[in-house]
């Protein structure tokens, strides 16, 4: 399986983007990182919805 097929990949990316946003000195750069984190979070939610509907089955 490729890394980007894994929810863990997106969880890791979201966490890293939030950390980069917190460390950014420029508010515009922080906003870019937060936007990326939100995009990763949306991907995570989209992948979780079908699993929840199937009671955890892929």
How would you describe this protein?
The chain has 58 residues and is mostly helical. The protein has one domain. Helix content is 76%, strand content 0%. The protein has two helices and no strands. Helix 1 runs antiparallel to helix 2. The longest helix is centred in the last third of the chain and has 27 residues. The mean pLDDT is 86.
In a nutshell, what does this entry contain?
The protein has helices at residues 7-23, 27-53. It has 58 residues and is mostly helical.
List keywords for this structure.
58 residues, mainly alpha, elongated
What is the string of SSEs from the N terminus onward? Answer: HH
| Coarse shape | elongated
Number of domains: 1
Structural class, by secondary structure, is: mainly alpha
Poorly predicted ranges: none
Topology:
Elements: H1 7-23, H2 27-53
